[in-house]
């Protein structure tokens, strides 16, 4: 039996999906768009996952599992490396930012002198004596 959908990795578009002839094109487009895929410009039968910088592989596998739960057969090859690994680059940026010392914790930062605040009890007893 021919799979309904084929999923794979594309160097330029990230995760892509293509419907086979086992499903009508408008029904395939309907399902893929609800799973956050969009048509690739210039290629009417190819769809790419939106927001490629946002957890690409997990979202792709989630789509594969969703379609299989709905009874579709899906062929997925999402393990091939891509030239553009935006998710790994994003995680590296986050790790560098987390490792950096924030400006308020610099060693040479000037210390702000605090002004002592009178205790509540002292203020209220002075007010009572004035009456």
Helix segment tally: 4
Strand content: 15-25%
Q: Briefly note the structural class of the backbone.
A: alpha+beta
Q: How are strands sequenced across the largest beta sheet?
A: 3-4-2-1-5
Would you give an account of this structure?
By secondary structure, this protein is α+β, with helices and mostly antiparallel strands. Helices cover about 35% and strands about 20% of the residues. The chain has helices spanning about 25-35, 55-70, 85-100, 120-130, and strands spanning about 5-10, 15-20, 35-40, 45-50, 75. Strands 3-4-2-1-5 form a 5-stranded mixed β-sheet, covered by helices on one side. The longest helix has 14 residues, at about 55-70. It is elongated and about 80 Å long. It starts with a strand and ends with a helix.
What's the short version?
The chain has 131 residues and is of the alpha+beta class. It is built from four helices and five strands.
SSE blueprint:
Elements (H helix, E strand, L loop, with lengths): L4 E6 L3 E6 L5 H10 L2 E4 L2 E7 L6 H14 L4 E4 L8 H14 L20 H11 L1
Parallel strand pairs: 1-5
Antiparallel strand pairs: 1-2, 2-4, 3-4
């Amino acid at each position: 039996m021919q799979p309904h959908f084929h999923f794979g990795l594309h160097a330029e578009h990230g995760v892509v999906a293509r419907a086979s002839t086992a499903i009508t094109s408008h029904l395939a487009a309907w399902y893929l768009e609800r799973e956050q895929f969009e048509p690739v410009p210039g290629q009417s039968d190819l769809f790419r996952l939106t927001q490629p910088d946002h957890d690409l592989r997990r979202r792709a596998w989630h789509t594969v599992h969703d379609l299989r739960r709905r009874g579709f057969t899906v062929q997925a090859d999402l393990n091939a490396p891509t030239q553009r690994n935006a998710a790994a680059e994003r995680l590296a940026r986050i790790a560098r930012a987390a490792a950096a010392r924030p400006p308020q914790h610099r060693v040479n930062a000037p210390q702000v002198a605090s002004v002592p605040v009178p205790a509540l009890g002292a203020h209220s007893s002075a007010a009572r004596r004035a009456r």
